[in-house]
Amino acid sequence: MPYPQLPTPEEQLAEAKKLLSLPTIVVICGSTRFMTEMNEADLRETEAGRIVVKPGCDMKSPNRLWSDPDEAEALKIRLDDLHRAKIRLADEVLVVGDYIGDSTRAEVAYARSLGKPVRFTHPEVDPGTD
Questions:
Q1: pTM recorded for the entire structure
Q2: What whole-number distance in Å separates Cα of residue 9 and Cα of residue 23?
Q3: Which end of the chain, N or C, is less packed with Cβ atoms under 10 Å?
Q4: pLDDT tens for residues 72-82?
Q5: Cα 77 to chain center, whole Å?
Q6: What is the distance between the alpha carbons of residues 88 and 81, in angstroms, rounded to a whole number?
């Protein structure tokens, strides 16, 4: 006699979002050189009734939190892990900007591996499914 299949954590999260009647959650991805564009996208997505999560730090701008190179490298690793968690939480991904570097390319691949829909403000930079 087969045992009932337990729901995956992802299925449990999706069900919890439904039970809580949460709006669509969008994670914004892209190079932090596009922080101004990310803020504009946040405004548009919020106005459309979506919950928005996005990068919280622009490590390209000077700040005492990442002034030490060793601490900056450790912080970058933690921030990358945190952003992948945001991708797992989100219902969809919005990639901002007309350039995609290695980090954003990896985020897009990760999101697609999870079955998340990915939108682009500049569709011509979509790296495809590779």
A1: 0.90
A2: 19
A3: N
A4: 899 999 999 99
A5: 15
A6: 11
Query: Kind and range of the H or E element at 27?
Result: strand 25-29
Domain residue ranges of the chain, discontinuous segments joined by +: 24-122
Measured between alpha carbons, how far is residue 130 from residues 6, 35, 90, 109 in Å?
32, 26, 22, 8
Structure tokens at 30: 């892209």
Side-chain-side CA neighbours of residue 115 (13 Å): 3
Q: What is the pLDDT of residue 59?
A: 85
pLDDT tens-digit series, residues 27-61:
999 999 999 999 999 999 999 999 999 998 888 88
Any idea which fold 24-122 has? Rossmann fold (3.40.50)
Three-state DSSP state, 55: coil
Cβ–Cβ < 8 Å for 89, 25:
yes
